[in-house]
Design goal:
Blueprint lengths: L18 H28 L1 E6 L5 E6 L7 E9 L8 E4 L8 E4 L12 E9 L7 E9 L1
Parallel strand pairs: 5-7
Antiparallel strand pairs: 1-2, 2-7, 3-4, 3-6, 4-5, 6-7
Length: 142
Amino acid sequence: MDNLIHNLDEKKPADGLPVTKFLIILALFVAVGIGIGFGISKLGKSSTGGILKTSSGEKKTAGVTDKKTFKDQAEGILREGGIDGEGNFHLERPGGTSQNVYLTSTTVDLSEFVGRKVRVWGQTFSGEKAGWLMDVGLVESL
């Protein structure tokens, strides 16, 4: 009967480490992984412009402040609607509809700036119908 009862502290996994040392090492790996993940998440936030609000609560800017990727800029009054399926919004600029900049965005919710005079930074793409088609990365309310 003495062979059937064993002390758990003496039991070792296949690699020869005691169970308690194995659990401590595993806990350390998990803690280091969480710390690295937290650090990386903080680094990722430093490259974004985030959202700045005015004292009345309106958004002032939104998007990514990466002006290497989003180097083109334009300003005008932001309106809803594209042209023949190109863009979801457009900027009204002096000179009539031929001067409109048609906009889409993969990073900013432009609907929150409709009706306001804005400056946008983005990347220009060729459009079939739009004279100027831009993917907006940063928008600033003027």
